[in-house]
Request: fold
Amino acid sequence: MISLEHRQQTVNLIREAVAEGARVSEACQCVEIDPGTFRRWQHQGEVVPDARPQATRPAPSNRLTELERAMILAACHRPEFQSSPPSQIVPALADQGIYVASESSFYRVLHESDEQHDRGRARTRCKRAKPTAYTATGPNQCWCWDVVRHEALLTVPRWKTVAARLSQQSGISWGQSAS
Reply:
């Protein structure tokens, strides 16, 4: 959304251009807005703020009722589903011939009631560290090999091919050091 100050500045620029003889459409094109937007931004000569944040919007007609939300939570709290995610609860209920709501509705209701986390006896996720990253900045700093190569199948040893590719990609030459 565009702030009121920015709107006022843009409208003033367009008004100046129109006062000097430009058409509204050309002036609007210069500031990259549509002429209809320019007209909407003004009401009785005044620049009006954006009314979308204060707009009252009706509730969706397919919104879940409180009873349906309670049924979802009751289904999730049943002993056989306490440790299961909605992706397992919904099909299990369908096998029993019961339809409460969609899987996404289960997730949404559990999230709204702050129950969308490790449920029941499920273990908490362990945080894993990222693997260590290494950067080669000169020759002979990065070596790699292929442990599962079979010399009978290769005419050139695999480690030479990998080392050659690595040196081509990174711009690092490989070979014997002058020691």
Observations:
- The first helix runs from residue 4 to 19.
- The CA atoms of residues 63 and 105 lie 10 Å apart.
- The chain has seven helices and two strands.
- Residues 66-112 form one domain.
